[in-house]
């Protein structure tokens, strides 16, 4: 690679800006996720208050049963960008006609007539999963930008040390 | 940029307090595989840090798990293990818990990204 120091510096600036944007995006998604999860926790607490603390706990999850199957289908696409693998996630609800009776709605673990707040809590946690996937995609891009920046810094460092000393002082490497 | 490969039917794993696990299991994230291994772990005040570490490492090794959700306060307990995980898959996401709001300054990925603004630290 025979790039000039100006090109390298320009690429570093562009990647640093993208890094800043992604950091902001990640924080925004996390704040949104926090709001939805907080609602979910509150609805879960309401359901616990109505049904009793013991009746809505992890003890209701049929751990011995192999029929605990996820309702979601997570798809991961791997793309190769400058030698590094960058994943891209996508989530969707499984289509019930493909699986028939195999998939059971987890709300049934907690009884037949469950409080409305438990249904709302379920909805909130399901909504949060879409944000989780968005955050994971942003995170993957951040990692890729950080990797690029590290190699650019290295490139800048090496090209500065090979340059004549006069030039490196001017460029303040 | 070339499409390398694509995988369907992957799982999300959860490590967190009881409410977080119950919430996400209620949402339909839970799965117990043929080897009777669940994709979640409930952490309470009696859970040893080594157990959390072991579970996290086990989740990382499983090829059916692509995203790991972990409560930020639990992530704090095994920060060194999370920081040492630099592979793109599984992606580790720190989420807030009922008692601990999300703190961006503790997030491993954001700390790495922030580190890029101090190039002197890199060399």
From TrEMBL, chain A:
One of its GO terms (biological process) is vacuolar proton-transporting V-type ATPase complex assembly. GO terms for molecular function: unfolded protein binding. It holds the Pfam family Vma22_CCDC115. It comes from the Eukaryota. This is Vacuolar ATPase assembly protein VMA22.
Automatic annotation (TrEMBL), chain B:
One of its GO terms (molecular function) is proton-transporting ATPase activity, rotational mechanism. Keywords: Hydrogen ion transport, Ion transport, Transport. The keyword Transferase does not apply. One of its GO terms (cellular component) is proton-transporting V-type ATPase, V1 domain. It holds the Pfam family ATP-synt_F. The keyword Transport applies. InterPro entries: ATPase_V1-cplx_f_g_su (IPR008218), ATPase_V1-cplx_fsu_euk (IPR005772), ATPase_V1_fsu_sf (IPR036906). Belongs to the V-ATPase F subunit family. Subunit of the V1 complex of vacuolar(H+)-ATPase (V-ATPase), a multisubunit enzyme composed of a peripheral complex (V1) that hydrolyzes ATP and a membrane integral complex (V0) that translocates protons. V-ATPase is responsible for acidifying and maintaining the pH of intracellular compartments and in some cell types, is targeted to the plasma membrane, where it is responsible for acidifying the extracellular environment. V-ATPase is a heteromultimeric enzyme made up of two complexes: the ATP-hydrolytic V1 complex and the proton translocation V0 complex. The V1 complex consists of three catalytic AB heterodimers that form a heterohexamer, three peripheral stalks each consisting of EG heterodimers, one central rotor including subunits D and F, and the regulatory subunits C and H. The proton translocation complex V0 consists of the proton transport subunit a, a ring of proteolipid subunits c9c'', rotary subunit d, subunits e and f, and the accessory subunits VhaAC45 and ATP6AP2. This is V-type proton ATPase subunit F. The lineage of its organism: Eukaryota, Metazoa, Ecdysozoa, Arthropoda, Hexapoda.
